[in-house]
Amino acid sequence: MSRPAIPTACVIGWPVAHSRSPVIHRFWLQELGIDGDYVIMPVEPERVDAFLRDFAASGYRGGNVTMPHKEAAFAAVADMDAAARAIGAVNTLWIEDGKLVGGNTDALGFLANLDGAVENWDKNPGAAVVLGAGGAARAVLFALIERGFGPIHLVNRTMARAEELALRFGKAVRPAGWDGVDGLLRDAALLVNTTTLGMKGAPSPALDLGALPEHAVVTDIVYVPLETPLLAAARARGLRTADGLGMLLHQAAPGFARWFGRQPQVTPALRAAVLKTFEA
């Protein structure tokens, strides 16, 4: 890595060319009048350990970590925040006293998105259904436990993976298979899709949303397309929903504040700037 001439942060992943993070951070840099930059750094899996080992001396202020490097970043940092430790993955890097430090802002982004999109969504936290048991599900489980939801039914195709996360997060999380999901929806205050089902080119989750109570909230972390088939079906039923773009925007803010010393805001103008990239 060549040393940047101005304060610079980056996003690392493989592949990573599709990342909207540069749009988000460059928007804030321009809005706040900061002479800085944010760049994409494609890092192959076989090269990530060496890349992270040298990062503290690279001259970069920090960076975001996307798939498939979040667990490698977790192992590489000298210290981490409580969320990263509980979730078992790092998505944000920064430098402290010359050492690489990490955090996880996915749970914060998930909660901030719902807080902004659905009024009082957590006023009476109850049962929740979370689809998928990957890295994103870890952050969602951490967030929902913080807000007092339970039981949280973790539905996954591979039961062993769901059971593993249930052991990690405790008795609030209950593993379940897809065959019983419709029954679980009957008492759910919240349904969260953390899988790639519904993403552009992928099939949508096979669910009967008619089983959900009228007060239930449905959210999807997928943001391409912005309105997934799951969200469309929920809105057709008159349920309150939150799309996945807000999570992406909100999770970016803490890193920007650490790297560039100013707290950015998630605004309609930022959302519009990112949405423009979907049209390309």
Tell me what the structure shows:
- By secondary structure, the chain is of the alpha/beta class.
- The chain is built from eleven helices and twelve strands.
- The longest helix is centred in the last third of the chain and has 16 residues.
- 44% of the residues are buried.
Concise synopsis of the structure shown:
This protein has 280 residues and is α/β, with parallel strands linked by helices.
Rg (C-alpha, Å): 19 Å
Whole-number average pLDDT? 95
Outline: globular
Low confidence ranges = none
Order of helices and strands: EHEHEHEHEEHEHEHEHEEHEHH
List the strand order in the largest sheet: 2-1-3-5-6-4
Total helices: the number is 11
Distance between the termini: 30 Å
| Number of strand segments | 12
Helicity, as a percent range:
25-40%
Give me the secondary-structure category.
Answer: alpha/beta
Biggest beta sheet summary: 6 strands, mixed
Please give the oligomerization state of what you see.
single chain
- What proportion of the residues form beta strands (DSSP E)? 15-25%
Keyword list:
single chain; 280 residues; alpha/beta; six-stranded mixed beta sheet; six-stranded parallel beta sheet; globular
What is this structure's SSE topology?
Elements: E1 8-13, H1 21-32, E2 37-42, H2 48-55, E3 62-65, H3 70-76, E4 79-80, H4 82-87, E5 92-96, E6 99-103, H5 106-117, E7 127-131, H6 135-146, E8 152-155, H7 159-169, E9 173-176, H8 181-185, E10 188-193, E11 217-220, H9 229-236, E12 240-242, H10 245-260, H11 268-278
Parallel strand pairs: 1-2, 1-3, 4-6, 7-8, 7-10, 8-9, 10-11, 11-12
Antiparallel strand pairs: 3-5, 5-6
Helix pairs in contact: 1-10, 1-11, 5-6, 5-10
